[in-house]
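Entry 14. Structure prediction run on the chain below.
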Amino acid sequence: MIEALSYGFVQHAILAGILVSLAAGIIGSLIVVNRMVFLAGGIAHTSYGGIGLAIYFGLPIFLGASLFAVGAALLIAVLTVKKRHRIDTFIGLIWAVGMAIGVIFVDLTPGYNVDLMGYLFGSILAVNTQDLYFMGGLLAVILFVITFRYRHILAVSYDSEYAALRGVNVKFYYTLTLILSALTVVIAIKVVGLILVIAMLTIPVYIAEKLSNSLFSMMFVSGAIATLFTLVGLWFSYTYNLTSGASIILVSAASLGLFLLFYRK
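Output returned:
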C-alpha cells in the first residue's frame, strides 16, 4: 500500500475519503437525532434524477446531482416542516420519481452506454481535483454552520416546539439541515455509491452515540470513526482488488458487529 501513495489518484482517494467521512459524521449525527435516516436513502436515490439530467444535457455530474438533491431537500422541507411524522411518505414518493427521471433521461441520451455502476457503488478512485474542492468547500460550510449555529440546530433537532417558543426560526434551521444533508449525501455517493450511502451515514454515528454524552461530541467522534473505516476499507480494496465503496461498508459493518459484541460484555 505504501508504494501506492505515490500515485495521484490514490492520494485523491484518501483525501476525498477523509473529507467525506468528516462531513458524513457530522451530518449523519443530525440525521439520526432528527430521526431522518430514511431521508439519506431518499435523497441519494432522488439525486439519480440529477445524474440522468446532467448526462442528457452534458453538464458536470456533481453539479446535476447536487442541484437535484438540494431541490428535493427544499421540496421535502416545504411539505414536512409542520408534518414531520409524514416525512417517510413524501421521501418514498420523491425517491421513486427521482430514480425514474434519471433512468428515462439516461435512456434518452443518444449513444450513451457508459456503465453507471460507479454511481451505484461509488468510484472514489475516480475523484479529481475539482471534486476535492467541492468536498472541502462543503465541509468548511458544515463546520462554519455547526460552530456558529450549534445551539439553534440542537434545539430544533431535539424539541422544535420549544425552540419556536424561544424565538428560533425552526423552518430555516430545519431546511438548512435538509440542504446540508442533501449535499453530504451527494459527495458520499462518490465514495460509496447511492445504494450504500445510508450505511456510511449511520454506522459510525451509532457507535459514536454510545461513546458520547452530547450531540457535539457525537458529531466529531463519528467523523473520526468514519475516517478510520474509510481508510481501512481503502486498504482492503487496494490489497485484495475489491470495490472500494463495498469494502468501506463491509469494514464498517464488521466493526459495528465487534463493537456490539464487546460493548454488551
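Residues 233 and 247 are 5 Å apart (CA to CA).
Filed with the rest of this week's runs.
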